[in-house]
Specification:
Largest sheet: 13 strands, mixed
Mean pLDDT: 88
Strand content: 15-25%
Radius of gyration: 23 Å
Domain AMP-dependent synthetase/ligase: 36-382
Oligomer: single chain
Distance between the termini: 60 Å
Organism: Microbacterium oryzae
Domain AMP-binding enzyme C-terminal: 433-507
Pfam families: AMP-binding, AMP-binding_C
Low-confidence stretches: 1-21
GO molecular function: acid-thiol ligase activity
Number of strands: 25
Number of helices: 14
Length: 527
């Protein structure tokens, strides 16, 4: 490692993030995120207490000093391995503020995968939270310097001075975000300072967050949806409240009430549990005024129950991808019931279109691929020019999602191309089968997949999670689907499981659903 181009100087000799009255484009995105809030405002609340913006800025400055002592270069990647918390936030922002590249690593990864990804991304260091320290040993063995959270660190509650503002090229990489699972070759999306700034501005343009907003965070910050909550609420000078698990939905309801949260955000699996497995739709939550849903399609029936349960809270259905920094579209709450199933139209600054194979806009009702342009689109994947050219050539993002449009330009996702089921010569959207099944109130979750079949090509199978009250049988689910779907769409088999397989972000992993179906069929055949 060579000497760092950022060397800490006496803080009085540099501009502070809190001193900024204007933000030129070359200001690093960490300073942009922290420039608005007054120091006494609350930034973060967790089990240890509340952290003010003054203390957060100081924590970032202190962490910048610790990182600078490692002797890294500007532009060098630095990995972060920690749960949501002060350490993660301060580490992430310090890396951005120092002109380095943040590489967030999901805590669900095992030690070997952590070392592999950090090495592959050529990380100059790994910043590790206290609860993850045991996993850092493999990285240290691989020659990657490890900086661990320490008990009693002054930075943990911000006893250092405010952090200095460094200048960066707005098109310089700010983060590498992995999109692969825990197996297979990793693929990292390059996200620039300008990408984050543009997407944050766009989201704030329609969500209208204010300084008195308080968001309950159940999503990991390593996930772009979770990161967008951090970015937008810091920029708005609002507060975030940590809730470390969504496994027990009633605790989410209680946290919303205890902290008088004005907002919450989740993927379909979170809302399915809240609506069908908790008191969320029966509990009075007067402070709640907005909800965000993305990360996949929420079934129309559950969506209606969600809206009816908290009618005073505006529900924003959104759509995005890691390659778009986070958001691509949103559906205004006023359109939810009029345009059921729509993801809306492009957010401010994003042009979203549905194109046929020849590159022309499809007519209403026709199916094509959803493509996007905007300043939030990633410049490409790390060290993968071929995949970058296929996915993001010339700044145009090919999402891989198939969709339609209506006469007013509102877009509807049909399904991901790889999730279509091809049975008896028909193309079946797995989401249509799932939505039909979820009309049964006794279901908490459902996932449909296609499995090889000699007669039909692929047969439809489904796994479901049932609730405690009046749970339907597998035959009930099949009978219900038969009444609502064409014969070729009806599941040949339904398997009841305790929980759907999800990744660290709470999104259903269809590959694992197929494996569950195969295992259940083999078990049935051998019994």
């Amino acid at each position: 490692m060579t000497a760092s181009t950022y060397a800490p100087r006496p803080h009085s000799a540099q501009r502070r993030a809190s001193d900024l009255t204007s933000l030129p484009s070359h200001t690093n995105v960490a300073a942009y995120l922290l420039a608005e809030a007054p120091g006494e405002a609350t930034a973060w609340i967790d089990g240890t207490g509340a952290l003010s913006y003054a203390n957060l800025r100081a924590a970032v400055g202190a962490m910048m000093d610790r990182v600078a002592a490692l002797g890294l270069d500007r532009g060098e990647p630095v990995a972060v391995l920690a749960a949501n918390g002060t350490f993660w936030i301060a580490s992430y922002l310090a890396i951005l503020a120092s002109g380095m590249v943040a590489v967030p690593l999901p805590t669900a990864l095992d030690a070997g995968e952590i070392a592999r990804r950090a090495s592959w991304a050529r990380c100059g260091a790994l910043l590790v939270g206290r609860s993850q320290s045991a996993k850092a040993e493999a990285a240290a063995v691989a020659g990657i310097p490890v900086l661990e959270e320490e008990d009693g660190d002054a930075w943990a509650r911000g006893e250092a001075a405010d952090f200095p503002v460094t200048e960066v090229d707005p098109d310089a990489d700010a983060a590498y975000l992995f999109t692969s699972g825990t197996t297979g070759d990793p693929r990292a999306v390059r996200i620039t300072h300008e990408n984050i700034r543009a997407n944050t501005d766009s989201i704030l343009g329609y969500l209208e967050l204010a300084a008195d907003d308080r968001m309950l965070v159940v999503l990991p910050f390593t996930y772009v949806f979770g990161a967008s909550l951090l970015h937008t609420h810091l920029r708005a000078g609002a507060s975030l409240v940590d809730h470390p698990s969504s496994a027990f939905p009633e605790t989410i309801v209680q946290a919303l009430a205890d902290h008088a949260c004005t907002g919450m955000a989740g993927v379909p699996s979170v809302y399915n549990l809240l609506v069908r497995g908790s008191t969320f739709t029966r509990r009075e939550l007067p402070a709640l005024r907005h909800m965000q849903q993305a990360g996949g399609a929420l079934s129309p029936r559950v969506l209606r129950e969600l809206v009816a349960g908290q009618p005073h809270a505006r529900l924003f259905v959104m759509y995005g991808q890691t390659e778009a920094t986070a958001r691509l579209s949103y559906l205004p709450p006023e359109e939810l019931l009029r345009r059921e199933g729509s993801i809306g139209r492009g957010i401010p600054g994003v042009a979203l279109r549905v194109l046929d194979e020849g590159g022309a806009d499809v007519a209403p009702g026709e199916v094509g691929e959803i493509v996007a342009t905007g300043r939030n689109i990633s410049p490409g994947y790390l060290d993968d020019p071929a995949a970058s050219a296929r996915k993001m050539s010339d700044g145009v993002l090919r999402t891989g999602d198939l969709g339609t449009v209506d006469a007013d330009g509102f877009i509807y996702v049909v399904d991901r191309a790889e999730d279509f089921i091809k049975s008896w010569g028909y193309r079946i959207a797995s989401t249509d089968v799932e939505a039909a099944a979820m009309e049964l109130p006794g279901l908490i979750a459902a996932a449909a997949v296609g499995l090889p079949d000699e007669r039909s090509g692929e047969r439809v199978e489904m796994v479901v999670v049932t609730g405690p009250d009046h749970p339907p049988t597998t035959q009930d689910v099949i009978r219900h689907c038969r009444e609502r779907l064409a014969a070729y769409m009806v599941p040949a088999r339904v398997h009841i499981v305790d929980a759907l397989p999800v990744n660290a972000n709470g999104k259903v992993v269809k590959r694992s659903v197929r494996e569950l179906c195969i295992a259940a069929s083999l078990a049935r055949a051998s019994s």
